[in-house]
Specification:
mainly beta, single chain, 188 residues, seven-stranded parallel beta sheet, eight-stranded mixed beta sheet, 1 helix
């Protein structure tokens, strides 16, 4: 058991070094504070930049999690835990604060496909973009989707399978499709 634990952290460390070599200063990561599970991927295209703090607490990318920064700026704080099958797609700016937890199959997008020109294929029309900001100590339940233009306050909880858009207050619980306010976290 102890040997397996050590081996998986060694493999993660090597992956981090390879990412730093491949992307240079576009991937600001600390290989000692970032754990990348087998099947997890970090991809940077179109001049994007990824900054994963990991100064004090380790950041975990669980199995099949994908961080893709295409021309944007993705910042992830200390102690963030991405559960299995999370997808973060950044075209403009996406910020995740310290100590956030994300259930399985959570997706984050700071863009939508443009589709208004009937004379062009949707895939050729580009994107509309708006920044996404997730404050520290946020928990987002499994199957949720965080869309462009979203701002989530500190110590906020989002129920499973929610579609999140807009400004969400700190110390609050939200859920639904579309997401709606339920109550403050300290109320019963």
């Amino acid at each position: 058991m102890f040997r397996k634990v050590r081996l998986r952290f060694l493999i993660s460390f090597i992956k981090c070094i390879l990412i730093k070599i491949r992307y240079g200063n576009r991937a600001m990561i600390n290989p000692l504070r970032l754990y990348i599970s087998p099947g997890a991927k970090i991809k940077i295209t179109n001049g994007g930049r990824i900054y994963i703090k990991g100064n004090s607490d380790r950041v975990f990318l669980s199995k099949n999690t994908v961080l893709h920064c295409s021309g944007g700026e993705l910042t992830i704080g200390n102690g963030v835990f991405f559960n299995e099958n999370n997808h973060v797609i950044c075209h403009k700016k996406l910020t995740i604060g310290d100590d956030c937890l994300f259930g399985q199959n959570v997706c984050f997008y700071d863009s939508d496909h443009e589709f208004r020109d009937n004379n062009k294929k949707i895939r050729d029309q580009g994107y509309t973009k708006a920044e996404v900001s997730i404050s520290k100590d946020v928990w987002i339940g499994a199957g949720s989707v965080v869309t462009k233009g979203t701002s989530i306050g500190t110590h906020t909880v989002i129920g499973a399978n929610s579609v999140v858009r807009g400004n969400l207050d700190s110390y609050s619980i939200y859920a639904g499709n579309p997401v709606r306010y339920l109550r403050k976290v300290n109320e019963k």
